[in-house]
């Protein structure tokens, strides 16, 4: 179970943000899918506002409009795989449309450093950027020092980036053994979410003062049927010898997905992943800033 609320429990208002769209090859995501099939999906980001302090947190920055801002190897992979990204509205523009200037955002938490989540940090001139410790090496050894890196050393502003060492994840919460109480008041937890890529983190936030929660799962899974257990994570070696899987460590990713799945058995807990096209189509409008994702009713 998740911890019950305290008296006058602070919580987070959570809104979805547009962050662009891409096509994902199905055989990279779900086992038993035929090669050549794609699913069109969003790259969701989220705005969270503390109920008492009113401070803003943004989780992930979606896709850049200018693909030239990515490393050469990332640009090549985007074309070769057929991701075909398009951005009608960046995360910064989504905030402005919702009435919030990026300058008002105090914290940007990045789930991980893949191209469709790092977006463009430049509009967020005052924010502290928070990432898992595993991102430190990826940035330090990134492009241009390593011309063959998928990761750019300038993906985040160095002077305003905070790396969370694993020792900071000192609390177990619900099914998750490693969590950080971000504000120290039980309103929002950063969750260590291993398997996808080094430094991958999720957010588990209260969405009401009386017991509702939401898990923002980033790329813990790329298809909601993996969360429910209807499908298995894709992992195979193709004819060219390449591993077809979206996770660096499939076994750890499957363990993390199983933990997330157990949240579905707890009343009033929502689970969202970054690329959930079904949720996006069903919730366009009121769930996006300036609206909120409504907490599940008791």
TrEMBL record:
<dbReference type="GO" id="GO:0016787">
    <property type="term" value="F:hydrolase activity"/>
</dbReference>
<keyword id="KW-0479">Metal-binding</keyword>
<dbReference type="InterPro" id="IPR051013">
    <property type="entry name" value="MBL_superfamily_lactonases"/>
</dbReference>
<protein>
    <submittedName>
        <fullName>Beta-lactamase-like protein</fullName>
    </submittedName>
</protein>
<comment type="similarity">
    <text>Belongs to the metallo-beta-lactamase superfamily.</text>
</comment>
<dbReference type="InterPro" id="IPR036866">
    <property type="entry name" value="RibonucZ/Hydroxyglut_hydro"/>
</dbReference>
<dbReference type="Pfam" id="PF00753">
    <property type="entry name" value="Lactamase_B"/>
</dbReference>
<dbReference type="GO" id="GO:0046872">
    <property type="term" value="F:metal ion binding"/>
</dbReference>
<keyword id="KW-0378">Hydrolase</keyword>
<dbReference type="InterPro" id="IPR001279">
    <property type="entry name" value="Metallo-B-lactamas"/>
</dbReference>
<keyword id="KW-0862">Zinc</keyword>
<feature type="domain" description="Metallo-beta-lactamase">
    <location>
        <begin position="42"/>
        <end position="275"/>
    </location>
</feature>
């Amino acid at each position: 179970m998740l911890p019950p609320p305290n008296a006058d429990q602070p919580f987070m208002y959570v809104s979805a943000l547009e962050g662009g769209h891409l096509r994902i090859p199905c055989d990279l995501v779900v086992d038993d899918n035929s090669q050549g099939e794609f699913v069109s999906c969003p790259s969701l980001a989220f705005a969270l506002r503390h109920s008492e302090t009113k401070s803003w947190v943004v989780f992930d920055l979606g896709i850049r409009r200018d693909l030239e801002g990515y490393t050469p190897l990332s640009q090549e992979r985007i074309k070769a795989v057929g991701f075909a990204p398009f951005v009608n509205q960046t995360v910064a523009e989504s905030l402005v449309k919702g009435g919030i200037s990026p300058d008002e955002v105090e914290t940007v938490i990045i789930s991980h450093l893949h191209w469709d989540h790092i977006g463009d940090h430049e509009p967020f001139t005052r924010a502290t950027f928070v990432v898992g410790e595993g991102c430190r090496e990826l940035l330090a050894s990134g492009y241009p020092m390593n011309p063959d890196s998928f990761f750019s050393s300038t993906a985040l502003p160095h002077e305003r980036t905070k790396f969370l060492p694993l020792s900071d994840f000192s609390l177990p919460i619900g099914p998750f053994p490693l969590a950080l109480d971000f504000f120290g008041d039980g309103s929002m937890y950063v969750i260590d979410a291993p398997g996808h890529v080094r430094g991958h983190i999720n957010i588990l936030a209260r969405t009401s003062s009386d017991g509702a929660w939401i898990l923002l799962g980033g790329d813990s899974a790329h298809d909601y049927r993996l969360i429910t257990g209807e499908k298995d994570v894709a992992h195979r070696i193709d004819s060219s010898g390449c591993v077809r899987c979206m996770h660096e460590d499939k076994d750890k990713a499957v363990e993390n997905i199983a933990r997330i799945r157990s949240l579905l058995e707890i009343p009033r807990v929502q689970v969202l992943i970054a690329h959930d096209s079904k949720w996006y189509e069903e919730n366009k409008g009121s769930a996006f800033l300036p609206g909120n994702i409504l907490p599940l009713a008791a």
